[in-house]
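Exercise 7.
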Amino acid sequence: MTSFPAVSATVVLVSSALPEVLPVAAWPALRVAEAVYATPELPEATRAALEAKDAPHPDELLRASRVVLVTTREDDPGAVALVQRGAAVLDTPVPPLMRSVEVMDRLRSPGGCPWDAAQTHESLLQYLVEETYELLDAVEEGDRPAMREELGDVLLQVLFHARVAAEHDTDPFDIDVVADELVTKLVNRHPHVFADAETVHTAEHQQQRWEQLKQAEKQRESIVDGVPLGQPAVALAGKLGQRTGRRGVPFDLFPSGSDEGAKLFRVAAAARRAGVDPEGALRTTAKEFARKVRAAERAARDHGVDPATLDADGWRRFWPRD
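Solution. The predicted structure, written as tokens, is:
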């Protein structure tokens, strides 16, 4: 059996999401190291800054003295061998948001989760919709623990889609590009905050400015360009009513038919112009109706009546009066 001397070594663990950031505690070891090695996943810029060489076989690492190994993976064979022989381990503190990016990358990468690796933008859409509605429900119910959980689930969908996008053959982008474009948009659309533009005193004024800046940025030809047509129909009608109202389209040009679709459109569009969210208002009413149905069913059971046997008069008898 091969015998190795005790090693004077340091393993520096960096985040795959922030591979250019090393812990402050690593610098003394780097200054006195006889050799600095990096594992293959480290970016070239980091390797060059550290003057790091490619990590050799674990046996060679164990023969060296005053060696530093920089890696993103604690299960790297060289890192495992050094730690087993008593090497110091210096972990880079990673903010939780960056840690979530790191975890998503690990799940999607080779050796990660087969289910995560198989997903596409299209296959994930159902989960994006579901998680959004679960967050909506948590907000409406005022359930703070559920809000924290559901916000995390929505964040997961953002991270997941960005990680999938990074693998595109011709137009890849990652979460950093997404965040950078978001920051640019927020700064550009708030010139009264980040530049010397005219002061905005009300939320209504800012909303108008936002739409004006958005239209100028995107060079849209129509006032209804950019309205997502895939949203729920009541919300869509409301958005169209609001957007056209800002440009003076009169009520008499709304769909005028007597069919239910035209009637619903007029109600939803008019409500949004009046400052009422028709989707939210209808959902609140629908949830209250569902609450009363459950209350009537409970009342029937309390009187020994099976709710499945109720006729119209039976429902009226047990319907809550509040």
